[in-house]
Recover the amino acids of this structure.
DNA sequence: GCCCTATTTGAATGATCGTTCAAGAACTTT
DNA sequence: AAAGTTCTTGAACGATCATTCAAATAGGGC
């Protein structure tokens, strides 16, 4: 046996950047070759086809974002504080100039959901897990006494997720720091009320 | 002179449906021929190229949605009530099964913004006008005494728009009527507080 | 009713797309 | 060190894409 020469995670991260730049359809195999450094044949050998590379890149993206999310809550005894910092982090991300300010999950879902059930299902599950993780933090914050029980954690989690979706889209046309920060602040206030 | 034989508005509405179904890139000229009933040559004669047809379809879409928005406020002396009904209407739209539940403006912006400055500019202006119209209704509602002056109309307009963006995206993975209606209700409560 | 001009038609064009495959290169095992 | 197996390479393939254009068609002005 001879093992592949390339770093699979690095290739997937390069691919997700390429998909974020141009979208799935407009990203050609030539673009992917340039971004990943892999020749077409190697891509087909490792991921079956272009769509397989997208699916793998999406899963890697989800893994990375999930790890990133968890990092906001280790070494912290306040879940509410962690959620607030996480939201601020997302705002900073929206203000970034490169194309990684978008979320690959929602971007791919928007582009392919109506045409590809497998992509739709995969992304839906991942977004569901993300929402579930957020809901869990709200439940913890309620247990910690930082947020009241007047509304359920599920209710707050949904609203928070909706707000992040909205912030990301809003940032496309209004990338002004003050506006976004103010919106996020209001969102966090409302979701904790 | 000989005038064109087709109904331009009908063609543009058919084109926007096609673009909503598959997205701009994946909608082929064959799809557009089938959707509009126009042969390629006629499309190029009337709209210059595929991109020109998209730009025209976007403008028509914006016109239609703008008219629709205004209809919620004629024969009504309560701007606040109009906004609430409008939001309920958007929720109903999100629950629709066909692909017209998406917004062509945000869909096209997501797909093409990073690659086409003219599309980006056109859509940004139209979304700005929409936000401005909403802000104006909040200002009226404040004048009418239905909403307090504790926050500016601009602030409320931005938040409302952000919430609608969020609702639309959220509906992609959670098309459950009760959940969406509850989210919209909470949004309206928060934006009016 | 006839000519002129603009529109409609649909086949043809060149480019680019995702994908395949046979040959060459390199690592592992013996 | 040689053989065997797997990965890599990049040219070639058919399909499909947006676009063009010359011929056919049909309305408006006289």
């Amino acid at each position: 046996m001879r093992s592949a020469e390339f770093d699979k995670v690095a290739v997937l991260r390069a691919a997700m950047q390429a998909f974020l730049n141009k979208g799935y359809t407009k990203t050609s195999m030539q673009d992917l070759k340039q971004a990943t450094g892999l020749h077409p044949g190697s891509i087909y050998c490792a991921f079956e086809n272009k769509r397989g590379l997208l699916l793998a890149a999406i899963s890697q993206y989800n893994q990375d974002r999930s790890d990133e999310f968890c990092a906001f809550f280790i070494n912290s005894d306040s879940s509410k504080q962690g959620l607030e910092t996480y939201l601020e982090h997302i705002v900073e991300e929206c203000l970034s100039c490169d194309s990684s300010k978008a979320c690959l999950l929602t971007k791919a879902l928007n582009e392919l959901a109506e045409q590809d059930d497998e992509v739709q299902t995969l992304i839906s599950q991942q977004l569901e897990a993300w929402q579930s993780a957020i809901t869990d933090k709200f439940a913890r914050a309620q247990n910690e006494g930082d947020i009241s029980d007047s509304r359920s954690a599920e209710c707050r989690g949904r609203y928070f997720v909706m707000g992040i979706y909205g912030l990301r889209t809003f940032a496309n046309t209004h990338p002004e720091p003050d506006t976004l920060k103010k919106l996020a602040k209001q969102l966090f206030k409302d979701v904790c009320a």
About this structure: Residues 117-143 of chain A form the longest helix (27 residues).
